[in-house]
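User: Fold both of these, please.

Assistant: Here is the first one.
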Amino acid sequence: MQKLNIYISLVITLLSFAGIAQEEKMALRKGNDAYHGGKPLEASNHYKKSLKEKQTYYKANFNLGDAYYKTAELIKSGKIPTPNKRMTPDSAANLVFDQAAEQFEVVAKSVSNADTIQKAWHNYGNAKLMQKNYEDAIFGYKKALKLNPKDEDTRYNLAYAQKKLAEQQKNQNKNDDKKDQDKKDQEKKDQEKKEKEDINNKNDKDKQEAQQPQMSKEQAEKMLNALKNDEKKMQSLRKKKGDPANRVKVEKDW
């Protein structure tokens, strides 16, 4: 099983200047308290408020990513209801994991501290891994390992993500092959159906022709004899009427 160690950057800020802290630090501290109290949703609201006071406050950005990540885990496990009843816990959690990844990416690209960047990329990889977006997870882990090649958790997670990606691609290839085979099978069935229909149509035609009344030999002879008798009667009738067709032509005698 993968080691999804999340690097937490929850810093409790000490009050300064006569006990009065800046607004962003006060909101950060409230967010940290809520996070440790098992209320990641409440914590995320405080971190957002901190960022509203100071948009470039990387600690609030990092901690907001942590809060999103924890919230997504709770949604996925069913401990927090989905924001939309039409959504499944997995689909809702994926959206929140995506928000977490965005926050870690913001931190990784906006700070100069190598240790913070490494942890941000590691957490980015974890968020993508939970989404089963293995390619992006691998990208994040490789970024983290470049900054800290000795991090065994990142190395383990990278190997796990690479293994899952290979399995995913293998299954995808199987699905593609199955779709191709299903298509060929369907084309074959359609062709066989057409050929069967053609044969049935021909059989129906032959059957219809066979069902037409056939004249027997006896009937044919009777009909032929009747036609002969009719012809004889016509010839006899022409002779009686002096039909020119029956007169013999006499040649002139010179």
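And the second sequence with its predicted structure:
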Amino acid sequence: MKTEILEKNTGLNKQASRYPRHRQLIMKGNYAAAEAAKLCRVGFVPAYPITPQTTIVERLSEMVSSGEMDAKYTNMDSEHSAFAAALGAALGGERVFTATAGQGLFYAHEVLHAIAHFRLPMVIANVGRPSIPWNIWSDQSDSLAQRDTGWVQFYGESSQEVLDTMIQSYLLAEQLNLPVMVVLDAFYQSHTSENVWVPDIDLVDEFLPAKVPGPMSIDIDNPKAFGGLMPPEHYNKLNYTYWRDAIQVEEKAEQIARDFATLFGREYHNVEAINIGPQTKLVLITVSSITSTARGVIKKYPDIGLLKIRLFKPFPKASVQEALSVLPKDAILAPVERNYMGDREGAIFQEMQRALYGMPFKMYDFYAGAGGKDVPPVTIEKIIHLARTNPKEVNWVDIS
């Protein structure tokens, strides 16, 4: 019995040495997002509940009320109000976090534009779900519908990635004065328990400095007006400076991820290429939790690769081109879409076409999993079979 306990303890010690200054906990994706906000020393949380996001703000409420988290938590009367309050707190120089989903994000659309164009750094979590007909299950059409608001968008594959990406996102947001949206799939991630390595808060402090008020913060010694009417010549310059900083996101995100890996021991990239090389005939392109299923399926296919998109907006054109540069010219690309945007093709296909303009690869689009419909291994197998045999330009899988 003593030997058995010693062996177990030795195993635990080996695990602990993998990530020093961490605790390994079992938690749902929503709790991982809340934990990340605490670790980043967020000072203001405006909140409004909406399924399946609600447990994020519930958990934050518990942490603030118990004294575990030093922040101001405010219940708002709508998502529009929550984001308006986030805007005001960011103008005041505070580090801000909130969370939403589906209709909540749509309702905040106007304020999303304002936050971005006021150049206010903040991070939010969006638990992806669709709109009408009424549906609370996993879908990415809510966040993808906000592609043109000016927010940076990351999509997490696991609870661990959600927590780690939020920490990285605050650094990115505050270096470039841009807001960041971290998206996780409803239920597949938000309500599924996983092993998560949670870093000590002093380790996060080493990576993420204390918040310094930015150029768009209120400064009583140097008064300025916010939100007034802007003439064309000034508006034009404002957009130029926004563009100048936004195009740095792809490179800056990679650098921040490298620094994170050095300190925390976990590696991330804007895109992840799995089994992509000169031998690859077909590449599945995925976002978020579908990636994990596809990883398992392609293990038995030496000529099939996988491209995971983590940074979606601004779309990482250079990273995608580099990842696919080793492919043979006759390789086929197959985006897997958990979204329907009212157009012929899905959002992933559209962005990939734009990034690969002029390159020789054939690409066929595959809709699978909209509205939370499950995408099990057999569905990935169907996509592979269709892509290899007789694909249409746009294919809907598992319609029944």
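Residues 1-10 have pLDDT under 50 and may be disordered.
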